[in-house]
């Protein structure tokens, strides 16, 4: 169902920028001020200069600051730092990274995907978004007329149709194979053969894609598209670049598709309300005391959670494993009962905290920092969650529902800077 197309990408010229690993960066939402400055020092051509904006202050409006970013983008293209491919291509990424003593490898197809209203069920979101972050990315697109970083999306290929095609492509020499300081490596191949492109397009014509990481960027691209349509009716032509957004598409069954737990923290809750929250947890969950450092706690949650609905709590009194009682689950909860995050937020916290829930609730993917802050009393309580199962993800999202915010942490984030997608003219 998704319109997946090749495009004429802009890519760094390795002869100009040097080590390709030194010009890549994480997506914008993983970049703080310290990370930004470090990336700038690493290579004066690092894509952070385009992705986050030169000297961007995350606490102020970015609109004016992106004007300078636009000038830099124009200069890099004029000077040959970035060069556009002469023909439309798909781009195949092989990303390897160390994890748990193993070398993980995932393969993603970088493509231009047609923008659609979610109601068409061609592109499926799994979480809700916040307006300020969307507007920031709209301003960036208006300044650059480009997608700098790809959205991570996933698709189902139960019969393994694309894998032999990908293996055929990767048997040839890559455009580059860049090794980074963390022990990982990123290789990129171009797919320009019309026959291969046709097979890829035909494969995706029959199936939806699921947004994994990049909801704000997708909705910003959609807003950018609608703004162009409002300016000129001819802008709705299907072959125009602003009607598409750059994605990296990864198969559900890819062995390198890793999901980690996204944990919850509580702080500042009045004592009486905190007592009520703990009482509600006792109503819904069976509890048992557990011990160990943060890694051991997360390991137990991940292992035991493979066939149970559970989470762990940590506070100054220690850690407990909470298993959801079957008798507590109500029929009205529906498929979202599979999400411990949903049960926690909707059945425990929100009934007590109401519309102020997010004043006290926050999210952390760093379990070590979360546990340290809970045991020291810096946080009132931490809830350690297991990685959300991809089978339940596909069932719930494919059924038209969305998960609670920060339900998934796809690891690691996709590298930014492999390919840039201009949004002017035709694909």
How does the SSE layout of this entry go?
Elements lengths: L3 E2 L4 E3 L1 H4 L15 H10 L5 H6 L11 H15 L2 E3 L5 E10 L2 E13 L8 E2 L6 H14 L1 E2 L3 E5 L6 H9 L5 E4 L5 E7 L2 H11 L4 E5 L1 H17 L12 E8 L6 E3 L2 E4 L4 H14 E6 L3 H11 L5 E6 L2 E7 L15 H14 L3 H4 E4 L2 H10 L4 E4 L5 H9 L10 E3 L9 E2 L5
Parallel strand pairs: 6-11, 8-12
Antiparallel strand pairs: 1-5, 2-3, 4-5, 4-10, 5-12, 7-21, 8-11, 9-10, 13-20, 14-18, 14-19, 15-17, 16-17, 16-19
Helix pairs in contact: 4-5, 5-8, 9-11
Please characterize this protein's 3D structure.
The chain is of the alpha+beta class and 427 residues long. Helix content is 35%, strand content 24%. The chain folds into two domains: 4-258 and 411-422, no CATH class; 262-386, Conserved hypothetical protein from pyrococcus furiosus pfu- 392566-001, domain 2 (2-Layer Sandwich). It has helices at residues 14-17, 33-42, 48-53, 65-79, 131-144, 162-170, 194-204, 215-231, 271-284, 294-304, 340-353, 357-360, 367-376, 390-398; strands at 4-5, 10-12, 82-84, 90-99, 102-114, 123-124, 146-147, 151-155, 176-179, 185-191, 209-213, 244-251, 258-260, 263-266, 285-290, 310-315, 318-324, 361-364, 381-384, 409-411, 421-422. β9 and β10 form a beta hairpin.
What attributes does this structure have?
427 residues, alpha+beta, Conserved hypothetical protein from pyrococcus furiosus pfu- 392566-001, domain 2, 2 domains, nine-stranded mixed beta sheet, six-stranded antiparallel beta sheet, 14 helices, 24% strand, globular
């Amino acid at each position: 169902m998704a319109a997946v197309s090749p495009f004429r990408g802009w890519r760094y010229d390795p002869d100009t920028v040097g080590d390709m690993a030194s010009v890549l960066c994480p997506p914008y939402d993983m970049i703080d001020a310290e990370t930004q400055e470090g990336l700038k020092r690493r290579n004066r051509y690092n894509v952070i200069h385009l992705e986050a904006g030169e000297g961007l202050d995350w606490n102020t409006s970015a609109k004016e600051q992106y004007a300078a970013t636009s000038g830099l983008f124009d200069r890099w293209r004029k000077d040959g730092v970035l060069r556009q491919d002469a023909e439309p291509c798909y781009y195949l990424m092989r990303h390897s990274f160390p994890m748990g003593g193993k070398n993980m490898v995932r393969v993603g197809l970088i493509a231009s995907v047609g923008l659609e209203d979610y109601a068409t069920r061609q592109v499926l979101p799994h979480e809700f978004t916040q307006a300020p972050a969307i507007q920031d990315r709209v301003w960036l697109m208006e300044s650059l007329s480009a997608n700098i970083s790809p959205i991570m999306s996933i698709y189902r290929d139960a019969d393994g149709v694309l894998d032999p095609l990908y293996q055929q492509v990767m048997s040839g020499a890559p455009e580059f194979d860049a090794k980074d300081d963390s022990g990982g490596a990123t290789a990129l191949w171009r797919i320009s053969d019309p026959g291969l492109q046709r097979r890829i397009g035909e494969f995706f014509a029959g199936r939806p894609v699921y947004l994994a990481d990049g909801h704000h960027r997708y909705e910003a691209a959609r807003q950018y598209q609608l703004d162009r349509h409002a300016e000129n009716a001819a802008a709705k032509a299907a072959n125009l670049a602003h009607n598409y957004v750059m994605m990296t598409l990864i198969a559900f069954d890819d062995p390198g598709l890793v999901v980690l737990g996204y944990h919850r923290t509580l702080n500042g809750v009045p004592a009486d309300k905190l007592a009520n929250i703990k009482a509600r947890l006792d109503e819904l969950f069976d509890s048992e005391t557990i011990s160990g450092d943060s890694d051991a706690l997360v390991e137990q949650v991940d292992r035991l959670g493979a066939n149970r609905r559970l989470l762990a709590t940590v506070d100054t009194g220690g850690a407990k494993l909470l298993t959801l009682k079957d008798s507590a689950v109500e029929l009205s909860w529906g498929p979202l009962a599979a999400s411990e995050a949903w049960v926690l937020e909707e059945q425990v916290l929100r009934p007590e905290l109401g519309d102020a829930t997010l004043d006290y609730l926050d999210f952390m993917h760093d379990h070590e920092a979360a546990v340290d802050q809970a045991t020291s009393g810096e946080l009132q309580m931490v809830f350690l969650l297991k990685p959300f199962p991809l089978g339940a993800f596909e069932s719930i999202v494919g059924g038209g529902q969305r998960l609670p915010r920060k339900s998934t942490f796809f690891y690691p984030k996709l590298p930014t800077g492999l390919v840039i997608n201009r949004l002017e003219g035709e694909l």
